[in-house]
From TrEMBL:
Family: Belongs to the aldehyde dehydrogenase family.
An annotated GO BP: aldehyde metabolic process
Species this chain originates from: Mycolicibacterium phocaicum
Keyword NAD: yes
Organism lineage: Bacteria, Bacillati, Actinomycetota, Actinomycetes, Mycobacteriales
Keyword 4Fe-4S listed: no
Membrane-traversing stretches: none
Protein name: Aldehyde dehydrogenase
Residue stretches making up the Aldehyde dehydrogenase domain: 8-430
Length: 459
């Protein structure tokens, strides 16, 4: 065993021992962990924002908005509803089982592995922990080493706010993740790109560790001819700028009805400029060289027309918010998930053409539709599969703890947030409780003709 695998083995074994004590099943223990996460968000907001500024060059308010506030909201929502979620659900019995009682109870799974992402390195590490603790599990967190300041902050702070024996933070890279997976867990929840998602699933297979994969993809925005263009442009521009476009549910590209495409592009560009006016520079920081080079390559190789932005500075990893009009379908900016401040807008001749365009690719994590017609919005949602969908806004569904958050097909499997997270990390256990009386011997073999007739009726 190498030094690294020894560490992972010891962490997993330690957590299994803690789970075996049974203390994490208790409602009060779960509530204490959730309160701990709420306090962490309240008391350490400044330190979290500082770490995110180091890792991602983010303004402090954006870090509150996109990392701290949604994490606290998840914890608060779970704390308020947990008692009800944990109640066993009585099930009516079929005649064949009378007299008996049946119910579904939600058992903790055991030890859950959370593999965090670099783009929202606090939220995407701690929100899955909310689900893990609400469900009464122990957890090991492997934060992203691509956001090193946040990773070390989590390693330092989580033990101060949570049951330090029941949650362990293991820092490291992809090899650490694989070494952890090799230990076998009761569940693994990963957030990241689709390609690494496949490697996570492969790493989990030998130990039959079930996985929830929160992946990405190209989330399209369909803007119909009757849409409110002012609102659409504002909302698309605002969310695209968040975290320099490095958001799994960012609007990836826009399919606009040809009649309104020019006007929409002009309004999006205007809003991008207006929203950046208060900043020191119009450009936005990209996480690292690798992502910067990939994004710069998307701009330099595009077959579309760059109508805004296009500039970048590798020495500071800064890139201007860029709008590209009319790239071809096989242009890399239309085939790769963008994950940066680049917005292609493709004019389309009909709604059917837009629907065919999206459905020709893998199922996206989110679908956004701007239209004033409720019927049209529903009709589009019904024929374009995606993990989630929003009408007349983008990305806001992630903030609604009452809704399940997750992908479908290549954009992921499983979902969490709110009750859905509690269920994803619980075992939904069937229990049938019978009495010993009555116990008619009629129903044991050898079966009489009467028994056969009765059993054929009852079962
Ligand atoms: P990813 O998070 O997808 O992948 C990078 C991480 O995966 C690194 O920590 C890396 O470790 C690790 N990794 C690499 N190989 C393995 C392996 N065999 N087993 C386990 N972990 C491994 O981000 P990228 O930076 O690669 O981004 C690629 C794309 O992913 C982005 O362009 C974006 O489209 C998407 N993405 C989506 C996110 C989301 O929230 N849905 C979040 C982040 C990215 P190491 O450094 O050792 O290689």
């Amino acid at each position: 065993m190498t030094g690294t695998t020894q560490r992972e083995a010891a962490v997993a074994a330690g957590l299994r021992d803690v789970f075996a004590t049974g203390r994490t099943r208790d409602l009060q223990w779960r509530l204490e962990q959730l309160r701990g996460i709420e306090r962490l968000c309240d008391e350490r907001e400044r330190e979290i924002a500082d770490a995110l500024a180091q890792d991602l060059g983010r303004p402090a308010f954006d870090s509150w908005l996109a990392d701290v506030a949604p994490t606290k909201a998840e914890a608060t929502y779970a704390r308020k509803h947990l008692h009800r979620w944990m109640r066993r659900k009585r099930i009516g019995m079929p005649l064949s089982q009378w007299p008996a009682r049946g119910w579904v109870q939600y058992d903790p799974l055991g030890v859950v592995l959370v593999i965090g992402a670099w783009n929202y390195p606090f939220y995407l590490s701690v929100a899955p922990l909310v689900a893990a603790f609400a469900a009464g599990n122990c957890a090991v967190l492997k934060p992203s080493e691509l956001a090193p300041a946040t990773s070390s902050l989590l390693a330092r702070l989580l033990p101060q706010y949570l049951d330090a024996e029941a949650v362990r933070v293991v820092e490291g890279d992809g090899a650490t993740t694989q070494a952890l997976l090799a230990e076998g867990f009761d569940h693994a929840l990963f957030t990241g790109g689709t390609e690494v998602g496949k490697l996570i699933m492969a790493g989990a297979a030998p130990t039959l560790t079930p996985v929830t994969l929160e992946l990405g993809g190209k989330s399209p925005v369909i803007v119909t001819a009757d849409a409110d263009l002012d609102v659409a442009a504002r909302r698309i521009a605002w969310v695209k700028l968040l975290n320099s476009g490095q958001t799994c549910i960012a609007p990836d590209y826009v399919l606009a009805a040809r009649a309104v495409a020019d006007a929409l592009v002009a309004k999006i560009v205007e809003n991008l400029e207006r929203f950046r006016a208060g900043e020191r520079t119009a450009s936005q920081r990209i996480v690292n060289d690798r992502q910067f080079d990939r994004l710069a390559g998307l701009i330099s190789s595009t077959t579309g027309t760059v109508v805004a932005g296009g500039g970048s500075d590798r020495s500071t990893l800064h890139m201007e918010p860029t709008v590209i009009v009319g790239p071809g379908a096989d242009d890399p900016v239309m085939t790769q998930e963008i994950f940066g401040p680049i917005l292609p807008v493709v004019p389309v001749d009909s709604l059917d053409a837009a629907i065919r365009y999206v459905n020709a690719g893998p199922k996206p994590l989110a679908l956004y539709v701007f239209t004033e017609s409720t019927e049209l919005a529903r009709a589009i949602i019904d024929v374009v599969p995606s993990g989630g969908a929003v009408v007349n806004h983008v990305a806001m569904h992630v903030l609604v703890a009452q809704l399940p958050f997750g992908g479908v097909g290549a954009s992921g499997m499983g979902a969490y947030h709110g009750r859905w997270g509690f269920e994803a990390l619980s075992h939904r256990r069937a229990v049938l409780a019978k009495r010993t009386t009555p116990d008619p011997t009629l129903f044991y073999p050898p079966y009489s003709r009467l028994a056969v007739a009765l059993m054929r009726k009852i079962f």
